[in-house]
Description:
The chain is an alpha+beta fold.
Amino acid sequence: MPRALAACLAGAVALVLNMAALAAADLVPLATAHSGLFRLLVILAGGVVHVPSGPGAQAGFHVVVGLLMAQVYAVVLEPRLPGPSWERGLLYAAAVWLANAAVVLPAIGEGFAGSRDLGLAGMVWFAAAHTLFFVVLALLYARWRRRPGSPSVRPQRSTYQSLSNLSSCGDQMRAPERKSFASSKTAPGSTRHRRYFLVATAAYAAGTAIAYRSRSWAENFLPKGEPLGQQRQLTKPGGGDNRATFMPDGRTLLFASKRSGKSQIWTMDLPTGRAQQFMLSRANDYGRVAPSPDGTYLSFSSDRSGQNVVYVLDTRRGTITPISDPTAWSFGPSWSSRNRIAYFSRQGGNRLNIWTVSPDGSDRQQVTNRPGESRQPWWSPDGTTLAFSADDGTERFQLRLAATNGADGRALTRTGNWQQPFWSPDGLRLATSAELDSIGFQILLIDVDGQGRGASNSRKATMLHPAWSPDGRSIVFTSGRDNGSALWRFDFSA
Length: 494
């Protein structure tokens, strides 16, 4: 089989197995370091060159790079690397893994081998899936390049080959001995092959150990030491309670619930724990619900017009007014102390952008214009700054701050997956739902200068949608997903 075709076919089969192994990690779920090179490309493009985002673009990029690596192996490396096919594949895998661990992942801020985000299991799983690709590539390429009747291994070069030309009977009788003696001369080569294998294996082991020991950056954000407070359950799973926020009085919670079959807005009186449906709707009304500074107006999103739109409810008159573009999907309002409402929408290009608008629906302005998704905006207490999450097309969200017109933007985080920021009443910190390892999303606190510390005690369940109380003493959040979600409250220690 021609070299290029054999490499292409072997690479294709190896890619299928590699991508299946990575997909299996996602099902566990277990975070791994895949798509690092794609994310680096997006960062280097810096918005100057449009790079398609999304799972399809990442998978396509992965396939193209894999097939190119197969051709490099066939043309450049296979004729030069020592040892049997599996060993050549292992050496190739170790070299590429080290380049990814020491150059690519640190360049996108994830540390050596992704150690700032990944646990030991995630790093080992990725290394195994990575190695599977290269070893399968080498084995299949050797099989499909082999010609009928050709030996299965490369012939050993020996100075004793000339003995086969001897014609004496005695010499011919002694030929087996000489052949055996000649083959024994390959022992140093076999030793050298074992040495290459040990070097490659040691590189994996040492690299993974270094990566695991260098996880201090991420661990700075994880709950540790004495608890910062106590948490208690407010509602039971089964009703799909989610996305709670406080009313300005600090006594009442607003949240979305599916107890009636559709997503509806409910309230809870915190002193008594009594919950009741706030507004009856035939449509789906979603949280987060954002109250005005005096609590007389509420902003929420709903699909009551057939398209998900952001609305304002006048609680005194009972009137409801759409304020976002009725033709564009919009979600997640936040009401500022300066009487502006921020939300995110599919309007304006990219996948999602952040917009602001006056409560009467006038003066609608686009704030962000970044690749991928910019979403979940929340106002600073003084109403001058927006905190939001953005993925720049990588599907890994980072926290960012920006002025109300989108200017003076800066990133608070560079690694991990940070979402749903919510300002503290003093404006010094953000509560956020972050995924830094294989445990899942947890509620963490991060200072506006980018430092952080853990808030929640438990790391056993997915924790989402944190919201600070007006007095800064508590955070409410969602534990779990879909109908299995429930509301919890975290009270800080005095």
